[in-house]
Design goal:
The complex is a heterodimer. Chain A is built from no helices and 11 strands. Chain A is globular, with a radius of gyration of 13 Å. Classes of the chains: A mainly beta, B mainly beta. Chains A and B meet through strand 5, strand 9 and strand 10 of A and strand 9 and strand 10 of B.
């Protein structure tokens, strides 16, 4: 089983849609969790940390379920500029990246 | 926000050349730096983890004698690809982290093309 698993997509959605990404991790001792976005041929950039209580940053909402070892990212009112690959990242002693979920937002 | 600078951003060189890539944390002290490689349309692959002042820990399958990592200070780590060959052509990305549970911040990446 992979340490971090994500649905690779691709997700193709119209502008304004709400889209949700899921991620599961295998090591229950994992301590911190993040979502990164990576644009084509660019480095990953931190989108947001994920907290047990759930957290929101504008149109983005992240949730963590430690019991199920599950992380989610919800994007509301999708913009064209949201098109990217979204990486789920789990940290224990070092960070482990999911393979990423590709999102394309179309006009 | 935290800034990590990586240099050079693009390298094209002949087979057999050794290539050195620098990774600097500009506004924080990075106790740990990471080196990744990413082939087209594939996910990031961790190559090695380095802590300042100690030897790097390499992932399985990564040759430590081919990919030399030096983390001499809290703000600088270098990756040297020795005797590079076309199969080493890839996108190499470094990242730096201040403390254990903090997120990593990535450099801009280096596109290495070996002819």
């Amino acid at each position: 089983r992979k340490e971090v698993e994500q649905d690779p997509g691709p997700f193709n959605v119209p502008e304004g849609a709400t889209v949700a990404f899921n991620c599961t991790y295998s090591n229950s001792a994992s301590q911190s969790f993040f979502w990164y976005r990576q644009d084509c041929r660019k480095e990953p950039k931190l989108l947001m940390s994920v907290y047990s209580s759930g957290n929101e940053d504008g149109r983005f909402t992240a949730q963590l379920n430690r019991a199920s070892q599950y992380i989610s990212l919800l994007i509301r009112d999708s913009k064209l500029s949201d098109s990217a690959t979204y990486l789920c990242v789990v940290n224990l002693n070092d960070m482990r990246f999911g393979a990423g979920t590709r999102l394309t937002v179309k006009p | 926000g935290a800034v990590v600078s990586q240099h050079p951003s693009w390298v094209i060189c002949k087979s057999g050349t050794s290539v050195k890539i620098e990774c600097r944390s500009l506004d924080f002290q990075a106790t740990t730096m990471f080196w990744y490689r990413q082939f087209p349309k594939q996910s990031l692959m961790l190559m090695a983890t380095s802590n300042e002042g100690s030897k790097a820990t390499y992932e399985q399958g990564v040759e430590k004698d081919k990919f030399l990592i030096n983390h001499a200070s809290l703000t600088l780590s270098t990756l040297t690809v020795t005797s590079a060959h076309p199969e080493d052509s890839s996108f190499y990305i470094c990242s730096a982290r201040e403390q254990g549970n903090q997120p990593q911040h990535f450099g801009d990446g280096t596109r290495l093309s070996i002819l």
